[in-house]
Amino acid sequence: MNELEALILLKSLDPTSSLRGLEYFYNEYYRLGLFICGKILLVNDDCYDVINDSFINFYKNKMKITEPKAYFAMLVRNASINKLKEEKKNSDFDEETIIKNSEKVESIDLNELDYLNELEISIIKLHIFGGYSFKEIGLFKKMTTFQISGLYSRAIKKIRKGYQNEKERN
CB 3.0 to 4.6 Å from 33: which of 51, 126, 128, 130, for a disulfide? Predict the structure, then answer.
């Protein structure tokens, strides 16, 4: 089956045929949806909901569709942006509060950890002593959650290795 045949089936009044057409598009465009959503939300768990909602809208508006791939891409992009706006609106993230608290947290002395760079120390202070999530730290530092998580993990490994080296010397 090609895209044109699937579109004809999708627009069919027969529910069985229409669902076969939808199944074709689901199999063809699911990965495209994950890619588009992943670029916007950066969290695949949220992307699964966005993509499924987009396919529901795709099916509901099947009679309007002339370019299925472009239409689906637009649905996923818009739904991802709406999800991102909703998350930001519902987030208790308050940049002003983080800045005030980070100044307090930054004053904690971790200078003896000379094997960590300033960014790693800052992330550890904000996460452990400030109680901020990686997502909140990422928003504050203008980095992705994945980058913050990676830096934090590497910093913790450095601390463990430094502690083991110090323990072996004593």
Answer: 51
